[in-house]
Design a protein that fits this description.
This protein is an alpha/beta fold. It is 40% helix and 18% strand. A five-stranded mixed sheet has the order 3-4-5-6-7, with helices on both faces. Strands 1-2 form a two-stranded antiparallel sheet. A hairpin with a 4-residue loop joins β5 (128-135) and β6 (140-144). α3 (43-60) packs parallel to α7, α4 (74-82) packs antiparallel against α5 (92-108) and α4 packs across α6. The longest helix is centred in the middle third of the chain and has 19 residues, at 156-174. The radius of gyration is 20 Å and the shape is globular. The model is unreliable at 1-12 and 260-290 (pLDDT under 50). This is Ubiquitin-like protease family profile domain-containing protein. InterPro entries: Papain-like_cys_pep_sf.
Length: 290
């Protein structure tokens, strides 16, 4: 009986809501736990991560230079990859893809600029998460991945990138963005980072992708924590805290009432994510210890 009670308590705890950015952007404790080492990062985490990135871009820059999409297109992309030679922009799969992007843009349009210089589109193939950045400055489609491939331009990730970039070209034209037609001529360019390895690391690919989207501005960058497996564990805690403590989290106050943060200073915790261009500072009060 005690085991059953404990099991039910654990399940309830794992389903506890921790993040609520809106109707289609919520995270439960189980989703956040998926960011831990040796687990596959939930696609819901990526869906939520791009929202504060878009918010930061829209608030910090008069002309938004970057726009971030989520992983809501994964199921459609998988179908398109199964029969790529048989698909045309008129296929139902493409119609469904454009509808998903339309719903996303319509819901969060105030923080999304389709005419941005960098458009980030995460992609997931067989539980491996990477990202393609449509780079209008260098006129390339930059593939941001923590894994290298023997034949990078024919890898599954690159094939997925080609499909999604071609679809984005048609979608931008449909939305009246004239430069959308230019994308189809952009060469796909796998970006080499210091932490790129040939050995697969699917479990942490989502974490790498989150940081790639946060920092990348068209050129490879250096990040001391991302290249160290031990340091990545602390980085994961920072990313999780950033998601939970973000101002746009509608249930942040409730979450902070329900938990006690164990930190050296009992009165507050300061989480700072630093990038070359942006600094996200999140300050949250913890409950005073009695």
């Amino acid at each position: 009986m005690l085991r059953t009670t404990a099991s039910l308590t654990t399940v309830t705890c794992r389903k506890e809501d921790l993040v609520d950015y809106g109707p289609n952007a919520r995270l439960q404790r189980n989703d956040v736990l998926s960011m831990l080492p040796n687990k596959f990062t939930s696609s819901s985490v990526i869906e939520c991560w791009v929202m504060p990135l878009n918010r930061i871009e829209s608030e910090e820059n008069e002309i938004q230079r970057m726009t971030f999409f989520g992983l809501h297109h994964t199921e459609v992309l998988t179908r398109l990859m199964e029969t790529p030679t048989q698909c045309t922009p008129n296929d139902n799969n493409y119609d469904m893809l454009y509808k998903q992007w339309d719903n996303y843009v319509n819901e969060y349009g105030s923080t999304i600029n389709l005419d941005a210089k960098f458009i980030f589109i995460p992609i997931m193939v067989d539980n491996h998460i990477a990202c393609v950045c449509v780079n209008f400055e260098s006129r390339t489609a930059d593939i941001l991945d923590n894994q290298s491939h023997n034949d990078p331009l024919n890898s599954d990730i690159c094939q997925a990138s080609k499909i999604i970039v071609s679809a984005m070209s048609d979608y931008l034209e449909y939305k009246g963005i004239g430069k959308g037609c230019e994308i189809t001529g952009f060469p796909h360019r796998p970006i080499k980072f210091e932490w790129t390895r040939s050995r697969p690391n699917h479990e942490e690919s989502g974490i790498f992708t989150m940081v790639h989207m946060l920092i990348y501005e068209g050129q490879p960058f250096v990040h001391d924590d991302l290249g160290s497996k031990i340091n990545r564990r602390y980085l994961v805690l920072q990313l999780a805290a950033a998601l939970i403590l973000a101002d746009m989290n509608n249930i942040r106050a409730k979450v902070m009432q329900d938990v006690t943060l164990c930190v050296s200073r009992k009165d507050s915790i300061l989480v700072t994510l630093k990038a070359k261009r942006k600094v996200v500072q999140i300050l949250a009060k913890s409950r005073s210890s009695k």
